[in-house]
Sequence to fold (436 residues):
Amino acid sequence: MDIQHRALKLRIYPVKEQEVLINKTFGCCRQVYNTRINERCQFYENIIKPELNKTKQKELWKTLKLSTEKELKEKFEYMKEVSASALQQSRMDCDQSFTNFFNSIKGKTNNKQKFPKFKSKKNNNKSYREVQISKDCLDFNLRTVKIPKLGEVKFKNRKLNEWFNQNGLSYKNITIRKNSAGQYFATILCEREYIYKKKIYSNNENQVIGLDFSPANLYIDSDCQSGKDFGYIAQKQNHKKQLTKFQRRLVKKKLGSKNWEKARIKVARLENHIANSRLDFIEKETLRLVQNYQVIGIENLNLIGISKFLSNAKNMVDTSWSTFVSKLEWKAKKNENNCQIIKSDMFFASSQICSCCGFQNKKLKLSDRSWKCNCCGIEHNRDHNAAKNLKNNALKILREAEEFRSVENVEESLSTLVDFALGAFDETEKTNREIV
Fold:
């Protein structure tokens, strides 16, 4: 038995009074977060830093007393208007960011965390989190969501996934967000208990596919098809003229004026539409792949490093390959999909190796889009050949893993037999001694 988490994201439409209260909550949460960082920094500069003895520094850290939400409410009356739970979560987020920073310095975690920064009022992406939510906070008949302090807020109707209609579902928290385009969203975190079933993979090669990265097509697969065959469009290049037009209008406006804000919202809405269109295709395409194939072979790439030395870096970034891979891995791990993602090594020469005979052409350049094998004489398309090699490598890794498991099972059975035999020998020896 394990616990599964999913998030349900809803576009909400608050009325003017609710919108004002949401913006007040954003400001108060930001103030709690920034006050806590400022108090820690001031304590370090004034008390800890002048003391050179490390043992005394540790004792001084214990005397640190930070302002609580109650003290801040007494100092600032407007904080009483917003949700107390939201302020508490902001304080906990600040403490957690410091904990993560110190753990990364000590080497307790592999992820490198930077020193916590102050939250800016000018940042157009804002959010706060509520933990104390009711079990019946969602009403799909009236299309409303119940949020603490705000009451019932209308949301856009949408088709729910089967996962959210199952029994035993509980709501953990709700996050209210406002993006740069001025749109509001409510994200509800849900959890349920789930029993994971063992995945069974067949030896059918038709259920295995290799995906080679392509800046223009997103990917080229081992079946000689590309992302464009399934509806891939480079969204930012497709909306380039319209985006350039809005950006030029924004530059001509006076910074901070009402017309500048209107132009900024137009740019933000178009960029939001581009991001949503790209993500929509990635969600649908990754779902299609994990449902139709049992094994998918991909390559591990450092696209940030590669894009520095290429002329088509715009197309490379527009593919959002890292998001595509992460979505593919996450959906393959789900128990509903009997799929496995196998990543080839970063230095695996998928383009240079002949997929038929295994000959490696080390003289192959990046500009060579097709090449002829010197060993078997077959002419290869560079990307299609790389996809075939990724498929073959995935099959090889899978077979080696199966052989290793079978050897482990044999060793375990042998060890149990030996233990049983030794146990039986000890019992016979014991009985012989008793008879003597």
Q: What stands out?
A: Residues 427-436 have pLDDT under 50 and may be disordered. The radius of gyration is 29 Å. Residues 205-399 form one domain.
